[in-house]
Amino acid sequence: MRSFALAGPFFALSTVTYAQSQSIQMNTNTRDQINQGGLDIPKTGTLYGISGPAGKTIGDPYLDTTWQVGNVKFYGKILNTSDSLGGVPVRLDLMNHDVEIQAGANDIRSAKAPSVRYVVVNNKMGTTNQFINVREYRGEADALSGFFEQVSLGKMTLLEYPSIYVKRANFNAAMNTGSKDDELIKKFDWYVAHDGRAAKFSANKKAILELMADKKDQIDVFLKTEKPDLKSKSGLTKVFSYYNKL
């Protein structure tokens, strides 16, 4: 019995030691075969390793994640009494084209874009931004969903269309390159509305002078003297505000 008792642990230890020795020897052999060209892996084959963590979605779907106090105007009445909500925390979901309304600390309601005519929200600059349903315009707006921001109102109304597109994961397991994550990327496009019809707009000097041809001389002088940055929202707003006052 004593011999059996001693042999048990020894056998277990020997087994582990042998397994470790065998494993090391196998790894060494594999390495040597690869170095000597003796391990032929077909070019069409794949040598798999550990897959690693699954991909995730990077980014958020909101125009601004911060809740801002705003007023919401609906196309129809809500609660059978009014078509508006005033002074409520809101934010825009660009992915689903929803207006989210914070009714309480743990109570968030979503209004689908087709039910909302416009939203006016406070901003960090102490002013407001107005977002109007794209349905209020025709033309190229017919192919859109969601809201335009009305940046400058007038004869030529400057609109900004915020949206989101998904940059899909492009991970290549065989090459171990690319990303496993989907990424939400915000995109902003300019539109100009005239007589109720909206058209996409490229913000450059030539396009502006063609668009405002009836006041071309005044606009040309304004661009040369004021030198607004046409690639910025503030610069483009100055040009349209000036034109709409002429």
* Classification by helices and strands: alpha+beta
What's the helix count? 4
Helix share, percent:
25-40%
**Low-pLDDT windows of residues:** 1-26, 41-50
Number of separate structural domains: 2
The whole-angstrom Rg is 32 Å
Organism: Spirosoma validum
Keywords: Signal
Signal peptide: 1-19
Protein name: DUF4369 domain-containing protein
What do you see in this structure?
With 246 residues, the chain is an alpha+beta fold. The chain folds into two domains: 1-40; 58-201, no CATH class. Helices cover 27% and strands 35% of the residues. It has four helices and twelve strands; from the N terminus they run H-E-E-E-E-E-E-E-E-E-E-E-E-H-H-H. It has helices spanning 2-36, 205-211, 216-226, 233-245, and strands spanning 57-58, 68-78, 82-93, 98-104, 107-112, 116-122, 128-133, 138-139, 147-152, 157-167, 182-194, 197-200. Strands 1, 2, 3, 4, 5, 6, 7, 8, 9, 10, 11 and 12 form a twelve-stranded mixed sheet that branches. A hairpin with a 4-residue loop joins strand 9 and strand 10 (157-167). Helix 2 packs antiparallel against helix 3 (216-226). It starts with a helix and ends with a helix. Mean pLDDT is 83; it is low at 1-26 and 41-50.
What is the secondary structure topology, with strand pairs?
Elements: H1 2-36, E1 57-58, E2 68-78, E3 82-93, E4 98-104, E5 107-112, E6 116-122, E7 128-133, E8 138-139, E9 147-152, E10 157-167, E11 182-194, E12 197-200, H2 205-211, H3 216-226, H4 233-245
Parallel strand pairs: 1-11, 8-12
Antiparallel strand pairs: 2-3, 2-6, 3-4, 4-5, 6-7, 7-9, 9-10, 10-11, 11-12
Helix pairs in contact: 2-3
Signal peptide: 1-19
Organism: Spirosoma validum
Protein name: DUF4369 domain-containing protein
